[in-house]
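User: Reviewer 2 asked us to show a designed sequence for the structure in our supplementary figure. I'm pasting the C-alpha cells here. Could you produce the per-position amino acids so we can include them in the response letter?
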C-alpha cells in the first residue's frame, strides 16, 4: 500500500516534469537554418553542451523513468 502511494507520487512528478520539459523545447521548424548550412555554426557544433542539448537529454531520462514507474505500478497493482 505504501509502495503504491510512493510510486504514484513519483509518477505524477515525473509526468509534470516531462510536460514542462517538452514545452520548453524548441520546435523542429526553428531549425530550418540547417538547410542553408547554418548548422555548422558554434551552436550547431556544441548542441550537446547547450541548454537545448540538456533539455533533450533530460527528456530522454524522464521518459525512461516514466515507463519504468508505469511498469512497476502495473506489477504491484
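Assistant: Here is a per-position design you can include in the supplement:
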Amino acid at each position: 500500500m505504501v509502495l503504491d502511494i510512493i510510486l504514484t507520487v513519483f509518477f505524477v512528478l515525473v509526468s509534470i516534469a516531462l510536460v514542462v520539459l517538452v514545452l520548453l523545447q524548441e520546435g523542429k521548424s526553428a531549425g530550418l537554418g540547417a538547410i542553408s548550412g547554418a548548422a555548422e555554426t558554434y551552436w550547431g557544433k556544441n548542441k550537446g553542451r547547450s541548454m537545448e542539448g540538456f533539455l533533450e537529454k533530460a527528456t530522454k531520462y524522464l521518459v525512461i523513468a516514466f515507463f519504468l514507474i508505469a511498469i512497476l505500478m502495473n506489477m504491484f497493482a
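For the response letter, you might also mention the following. The chain has three helices and no strands. The mean pLDDT is 84.
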